[in-house]
Task: inverse folding
């Protein structure tokens, strides 16, 4: 059963929506966890599925895979999350990460500076460019899927991505090559 | 020089998360239960109630705090601590280099002596919490004790926050005195406190800090002391962007070089002659200029030298369509002792709007044990 079929069935049998949840929970949770950390991610993924369930009658059944649709909803949920909490930036690295012992012995201060600089670079992007960049680079959506997720044309995805990469290039050109 | 996709480094802000770990499995169970509650008994969806979350400032906060971090790093700006005014940045750096040749360094240590280095990074954050809004400096502190034989200690800790004004501190207290960890969120890899000690090792000094990334301990120890050769060695390791115009590439590379010099001077196990050579390389950079005579946050008189770069991808585009970024790197040095007192990096849009501003102060001394600080 495709996602489109499950969503159609869920209009008559709401429990059929669980098929969509089981198939896509991991991808959505991991994407949100990388962006906001595990605790907030749980709330946001729950809200994403709640909104998806509420809006399932508007799903475009031409798309058998619901992942782009769900990531588009997650993007809106994230935007609302940051608006609510007056955050314009991005989350710091996840608390799910283990302390990095190699960093401990070779310049945590430099690591902190690098993170600060990269966060500033990402914050400096217009929100619409940042979302496209993260959906492509982190959620690994194709350009077409990103266009579907955000309700924009594929050409717009390409131009936003191109501008985002160019802006990052001029903002953080100082990365050191690894030996 | 090498080209890298900048989005790859940005991705390091969003670290890989474990797949199907206990956190994910527990979240799946809870969310499934919430969804079932949602779907089965009450087909009309409602919003989930969110847990209260900490609120932190983002870009606006960083930009708003730009002016005050400058104050923290350079309090006492133009207050007459350095007189007469030095003639040029190059002169100041050459004076500092001469003093650095005589200053304590790892090769001048005697038995039982350690080179103690303390680095404190300040990152301004605007915090919104419990109805209060204030600016706090998130501080990261690193300390090294390194002996000539390579033994030593490295300690890393997150400290209590600092505040630019009494009003910010009062707001922080009214907000319940949140800890640094609470305010910064989840910078766990950076924030975790550590304390390591190591015995002598001829191949790898402890704490083996080599100035950030890229250079191994051996490469640091073999950096040449002839400025031109040293500059060639450092430049060979810089990344670049082929799409830049030659002018932009040169300007960005100079700032990049100054950042690398600041990073090495702030605690790498360098010989005195190597420290002096690094300062001479900085002195030779076109565009380096005096910024201010100042005292740093620890009250030490110093002089700031600064280098700016404007990176533009395609200068032929009209200004409103340009992709550009400004970067400014400042070294605060003490020409008398030869010490690096501080660094500051400011990132801004072409319009001048600040998007990032952070800095650090440094302190070093020769001590007699791995518990002593001076």
Result:
């Amino acid at each position: 059963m495709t996602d489109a079929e499950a969503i159609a069935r869920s209009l008559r049998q709401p429990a059929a929506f669980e098929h969509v949840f089981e198939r896509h929970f991991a991808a959505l949770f991991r994407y949100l966890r990388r962006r906001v950390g595990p605790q907030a991610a749980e709330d946001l993924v729950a809200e994403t599925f709640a909104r998806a369930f509420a809006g399932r009658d508007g799903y475009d059944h031409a798309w058998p895979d619901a992942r782009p649709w769900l990531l588009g909803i997650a993007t809106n949920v994230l935007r609302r999350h940051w608006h609510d909490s007056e955050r314009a930036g991005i989350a710091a690295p996840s608390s799910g990460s283990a302390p990095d012992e190699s960093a401990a012995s070779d310049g945590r201060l430099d690591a902190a500076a690098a993170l600060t600089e990269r966060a500033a670079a990402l914050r400096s992007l217009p929100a619409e460019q940042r979302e496209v960049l993260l959906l492509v680079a982190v959620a690994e959506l194709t350009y077409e899927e990103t266009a579907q997720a955000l309700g924009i044309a594929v050409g717009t995805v390409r131009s936003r991505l191109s501008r985002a990469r160019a802006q990052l290039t001029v903002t953080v050109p100082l990365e050191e090559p690894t030996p | 020089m090498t080209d890298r996709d900048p989005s790859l480094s940005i991705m390091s802000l969003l670290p890989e998360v474990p797949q199907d770990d206990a956190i994910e499995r527990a979240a799946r169970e809870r969310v499934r239960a919430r969804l079932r509650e949602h779907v089965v008994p009450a087909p009309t969806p409602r919003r989930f109630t969110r847990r209260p979350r900490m609120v932190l400032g983002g870009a606006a906060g960083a930009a708003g705090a730009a002016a005050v971090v400058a104050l923290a790093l350079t309090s006492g700006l133009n207050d007459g601590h350095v007189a007469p005014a030095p003639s040029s940045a190059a002169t100041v750096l050459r004076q500092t280099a001469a003093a650095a040749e005589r200053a304590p360094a790892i090769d001048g240590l005697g038995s039982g002596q350690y080179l103690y280095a303390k680095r404190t990074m300040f990152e301004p954050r605007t915090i919104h919490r419990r109805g209060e809004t204030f600016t706090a400096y998130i501080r990261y502190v690193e300390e090294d004790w390194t002996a000539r034989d390579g033994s030593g200690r490295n300690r890393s800790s997150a400290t209590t926050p600092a505040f630019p004004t009494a009003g910010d501190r009062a707001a922080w207290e009214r907000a319940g005195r949140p800890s640094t960890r609470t305010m910064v969120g989840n910078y766990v890899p950076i924030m975790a406190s550590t304390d390591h000690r190591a015995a002598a090792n001829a191949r790898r000094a402890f704490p083996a800090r080599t100035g950030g990334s890229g250079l191994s301990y051996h490469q640091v120890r073999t950096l040449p002391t002839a400025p031109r050769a040293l500059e060639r060695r450092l430049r060979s390791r810089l990344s670049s962007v082929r799409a830049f115009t030659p002018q932009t590439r040169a300007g960005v590379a100079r700032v990049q070089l100054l950042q690398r010099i600041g990073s090495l001077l702030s605690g790498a196990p360098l010989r005195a002659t190597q420290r002096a050579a690094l300062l001479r390389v900085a002195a030779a950079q076109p565009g380096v200029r005096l910024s201010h005579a100042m005292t740093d946050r620890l009250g030490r008189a110093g002089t700031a030298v600064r280098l700016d770069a404007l990176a533009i991808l395609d200068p032929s585009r009209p200004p409103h369509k340009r992709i550009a970024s400004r970067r400014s790197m400042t070294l605060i040095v003490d020409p008398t002792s030869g010490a690096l007192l501080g660094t500051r990096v400011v990132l801004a849009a072409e319009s001048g709007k600040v998007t990032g501003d952070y800095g650090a102060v440094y302190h070093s001394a020769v001590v007699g044990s791995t518990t002593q600080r001076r």
